[in-house]
């Protein structure tokens, strides 16, 4: 065997060793800690987004067992739990598994609207049957572990369309809804804005939301850990600035989930495992976990 051929084979083997592990897409738990003024005792929040009705075992057992193992104080569902192409069964099984078991709140993503009027109505009926409230420009006042929290929920911008067609280019309806939510905030009560879209961080940070939670970006689909946090994301394009992780601007913290979509995506995830995001709100100055 020629020396050049050996070198090429070695390079190919190294390339495969670096490439193949990136397609490992088992469910991950990603954790964040946020110092939260007005929080007396730690609060555990599960942020779950972008399931797209993908399968996680029989009856969604894998996903439900992962949630149960974390025992969150509340679950916030950041849209696209349903899909516009895949059947609703997997999404429904998951929602049935958490509804009534945990305090949950839901906001819509774009794919719920892309399902058309009849599909959207069917999905929202499933949500209601599971006892999970949808925050459509509304708020929920919650008392957990001795602390009051306001959760504000904004519809996806596709809510403002002509019969679920092309959205307003200015996203004016969505922006008006966020402004109205911000106007309802009370001093001294910790506030969370639950939204599907992370790309509007500049807009969110103009207001007094303490924490913004979002999804939609799917982690940028392809990642190189420590080098590239995402290759492409919807509504952000190449090298998205908000692909997934923690961001801070003007005192507003935003956490973006990389979501749970697997078989629904046209391009496979690479070094970008699907995730449940666990957020611990902690009193300022509290000791960090070992």
How would you portray this structure in words?
The chain is of the alpha/beta class. It has a single domain (23-282), classed as Metallo-dependent phosphatases (Purple Acid Phosphatase, chain A, domain 2), CATH 3.60.21. 25% of the residues lie in helices and 23% in strands. The chain is built from seven helices and 13 strands. The strands form three sheets. Strands 5-6-7-8-12-11 form a six-stranded mixed β-sheet. The chain has a five-stranded mixed β-sheet with strand order 1-13-2-3-4, with helices on one face. The protein has a two-stranded antiparallel ribbon with strand order 9-10. Strand 11 and strand 12 (252-256) form a beta hairpin.
Which whole number gives the mean pLDDT? 90
The shape is: globular
CATH architecture designation: 4-Layer Sandwich
- Characterize the largest beta sheet: strand count, sense, and whether it forms a barrel: 6 strands, mixed
Uncertain runs with pLDDT below 50, 5 residues or more? none
Q: What number of structural domains do the residues give?
A: 1
H/E element string? HEEHEHEHHEEHEHEEEEEE
Spatial gap, N to C terminus? 54 Å
Please give the count of helices. 7
What is the strand tally? 13
The CATH fourth-level homologous superfamily: Metallo-dependent phosphatases
Radius of gyration: 20 Å
- CATH topology group: Purple Acid Phosphatase, chain A, domain 2
Structural class: alpha/beta
Range of helix content:
10-25%
CATH class: Alpha Beta
Please state how the strands of the largest beta sheet are arranged side by side. Answer: 5-6-7-8-12-11
Strand content: 15-25%
